[in-house]
Amino acid sequence: MSIENIPEIYLNKDEPVQDLFVYDFKMTSDVVKSKVNLSMNMFSFLQVGKKQVHFADASVMVNKKQSLLIRKGNWLWTELLDNDDIYYCKLLFFSENRLKEFLKKYTPKQESLKDEIPFFVIENDDYIASYLDSLSRMSAMSSSFNVNLLSVKFEEIMLYLTAKYGQKFELYLHSLISKETSPFKKTIESHVYSNLKLEEIAFLCNMSLSTFKRYFITEYNESPGKWLQDKRLLRAKELLENGELKASDIYLDFGYSNLSNFSIAFKNKFGISPVETTK
């Protein structure tokens, strides 16, 4: 299962990613599951079909009566037909700078949510339906006019949802602002669920393996091997419990060269085999 870089895959070759971007996604056959590297926060306004998204510690399923605001990151998602011959959603991507400008202009400075919740469920209504219709009509307008109008439309939907959901939505928006982290931690946390070995992560940190291990213990109070293994096995367990993936589908993704080693490590950690977890 290859990784899809979104929204980059929706752009023409060499076309730069704008800080506001709308894309109409349509399909006529079910997508089983996609690995997604989402580089911008994204509204997914679902109009026909179902969407399921798996995050590091949560999952959510919505139908055409709901939409999602999803924070940037690496996620797994499935798009499904629902008694129709087509799946359709309108995607609205926005940069962190756009979000900061909106928050500075319209919301008081406040604390964000303590936990980084990866999604916010939106109940579709007549206003949102009308809003999406207006976005569709914009496609016939000139590009320069479109850019300016999209800025207005972005503020419109953000203000509407703030009015609709109140402080809950405001807090969620503030939580989408990236927290300042050290370059070392940023590199580590970007590759927690990858299949990279310690030597490879140390290289990305511009450190020798021995220096990397010492620095890691200082930052995390635990050896990097155990810390990464625990994180990856917990994530693997979540995916297996969902029932849509088998151990043979994921062991390579978590840095194991063969299924046997993965199964042994999994059983040592949880007391049951991966096969028992999927039952």
Task: Summarize the topology.
Elements: E1 3-6, E2 20-27, E3 31-38, E4 41-48, E5 50-54, E6 59-62, E7 66-70, E8 73-80, E9 87-94, H1 96-106, E10 119-123, H2 126-138, H3 143-165, H4 167-175, H5 183-190, H6 198-204, H7 209-220, H8 224-241, H9 247-250, H10 259-270, H11 274-278
Parallel strand pairs: 1-3
Antiparallel strand pairs: 2-9, 3-8, 4-7, 4-9, 5-6, 5-8, 7-10
Helix pairs in contact: 2-3, 3-4, 6-7
GO molecular function: DNA-binding transcription factor activity; sequence-specific DNA binding
Pfam family, one: ExsA_N
Protein name: AraC-type DNA-binding protein
Keywords:
single chain; 279 residues; alpha+beta; Jelly Rolls; Arc Repressor Mutant, subunit A; 5-stranded mixed β-sheet; 5-stranded antiparallel β-sheet; 10 strands; 44% helix
Order of SSEs: EEEEEEEEEHEHHHHHHHHHH
Task: Characterize the biggest β-sheet.
Answer: 5 strands, mixed
**The level-1 CATH class of the largest domain:** Mainly Beta
Strand content: 15-25%
Describe this protein's structure:
- Keywords: DNA-binding, Transcription, Transcription regulation.
- One of its GO terms (molecular function) is DNA-binding transcription factor activity.
- This is AraC-type DNA-binding protein.
- The protein is of the alpha+beta class.
- It is built from eleven helices and ten strands.
- The model has no long low-confidence stretch (mean pLDDT 86).
Quick summary:
The protein has two domains: about 5-175, Jelly Rolls, CATH 2.60.120.810; about 185-279, Arc Repressor Mutant, subunit A (Orthogonal Bundle).
